[in-house]
Amino acid sequence: MDPVESDWYGPDMATFGDRLAAAREHAAMSQSDMAKRLGVKVSTLRKWEQDLSEPRANRLSMMAGLLNVSIMWLLNAEGEGISGPDDGSYIAPDIQETLNEIRDMKTVMKTSSERLARLEKKLRLILQAANHG
After folding, report:
1. Which residue has the higher pLDDT, 99 or 10?
2. What is the Cα–Cα distance from 130 to 133, expressed in whole angstroms?
C-alpha cells in the first residue's frame, strides 16, 4: 500500500478538522445531525471542522463516541479511526441509521451516568453536613 494512501488522515496530511469532518461523513451524519447530537450550534461544529476553534474535552469525548473513533485519532491520527476515502467499505443506510441510534444511546447513557455520579456526590455532602451539623 502506498504510504500516502495508508496515512490519509495522518498528522502530516490532515488536521483535526479534516479528521472530524471525514469521520462525521463516514458515519453518514450531516453537520446539523451531529451538532444536534452534541448539543452545539451548527456554526460551532463548522468552526471545529474548519480548524477555527477546538471543542472542550467533554464534547471531544462525546464526538469520539458518536463517530466510533478514538479521541487520540481525532487529535493526532493515532489510535482507532477511519481509513482513507477509497477503502471500499459500505454500510447500508438502514444499518448506519441503527448504528447511529446506538451511538446516540451510548452518549446519553454516559452523560446520564456522569450526572448521576455528580448528584450522588452532592447528596453525600448534604448528608455529611447534616450529620455533623
Report:
1. 99
2. 5
